[in-house]
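Action item from last meeting closed. Structure (300 res):
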């Protein structure tokens, strides 16, 4: 009996395999499924189960998607070109599936994709790095390794960010959640008066420096909160406290040209510069400079 069963399995195996749909991308198989997995129950495989197709399409989208990369300025101020991305062309994909579903035998489908363009290309970047609109500098103790590390990470997160006309910038959205997985560290020593997030001490110095830089550039401040106590790295009431589960710092670019944020750490200095097009004319606010002495710190 077991020999007859074995022969039966061998006989049906080719027919099972022949109904496979192999999905390829750039010539390589990335996934496959049997036609029966897409079949609508009780219709003997004559109709596609739309819900199953949608689930498979969503899964395929996550495999195929490649985000674009904006053009950016490197550490030497040179423009690095943008890179195109791509995503699943769902209309073409489903059209191909419908056309091949009822065909007999094994079928290979090459995934159709469409180009995803970056928001910032080299031409745009060249035009908006032309004119320094404003800048602001704050100071910190570079010997406080954990806090310095966090400041540098947050600075890198906002560096090269472009805020388009009418667009609202959110510090929390751009920097993201401050977690150990993203490289942020708990700081055993914090600046007196600064809000403690547990992980990512020093982030508020970055948001406060950015606030003073963009405030000079004539943006519309949407959301800003001060610490409950004075912090020493900016003048009184010139801070912008942020917390992932609490306050955010947001502003809107009301100008008719994009604004480019350049944020760099040099030793114990955080320098944020705002650039834009040569055609942009603004009237800068007269904002008091940050104290250049090192802030007092306290151990947690």
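Sequence:
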């Amino acid at each position: 009996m077991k020999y007859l069963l074995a022969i039966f399995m061998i006989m049906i195996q080719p027919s099972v395999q022949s109904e496979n749909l192999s999905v390829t991308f750039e010539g390589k198989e990335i996934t496959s499924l049997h036609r029966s997995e897409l079949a609508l129950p009780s219709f003997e495989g004559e109709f596609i189960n739309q819900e199953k197709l949608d689930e498979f399409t969503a899964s395929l989208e996550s495999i195929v998607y490649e985000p674009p990369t904006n053009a950016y300025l490197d550490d030497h101020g040179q423009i690095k070109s943008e890179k195109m991305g791509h995503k699943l062309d769902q209309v073409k994909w489903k059209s191909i599936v419908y056309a091949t579903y009822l065909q007999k035998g094994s079928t290979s489908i090459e995934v159709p994709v469409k180009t995803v363009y970056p928001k910032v290309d080299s031409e745009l970047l060249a035009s908006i790095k032309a004119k320094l609109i404003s800048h602001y500098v704050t100071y910190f103790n570079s010997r406080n390794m954990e806090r310095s590390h966090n400041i540098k990470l947050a600075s890198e997160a906002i560096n090269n960010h472009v805020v388009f006309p009418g667009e609202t910038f959110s510090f929390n959205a751009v920097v993201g959640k401050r977690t150990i997985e993203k490289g942020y560290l708990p700081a055993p020593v914090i600046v007196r008066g600064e809000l403690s997030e547990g992980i990512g001490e020093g982030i508020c110095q970055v948001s406060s420096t950015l606030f003073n830089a963009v405030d000079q550039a004539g943006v519309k401040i949407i959301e800003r909160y001060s610490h409950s106590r004075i912090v020493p790295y900016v003048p009184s009431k010139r801070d912008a406290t942020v917390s992932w589960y609490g306050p955010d710092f947001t502003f809107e670019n009301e100008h008719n040209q994009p604004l480019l944020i350049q944020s760099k750490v040099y030793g114990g200095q955080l320098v944020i510069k705002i650039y834009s097009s040569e055609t942009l004319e603004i009237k800068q606010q007269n904002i008091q400079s940050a104290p250049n002495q090192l802030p007092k710190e306290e151990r947690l």
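Note appended to the action item: The longest helix spans residues 2-18.
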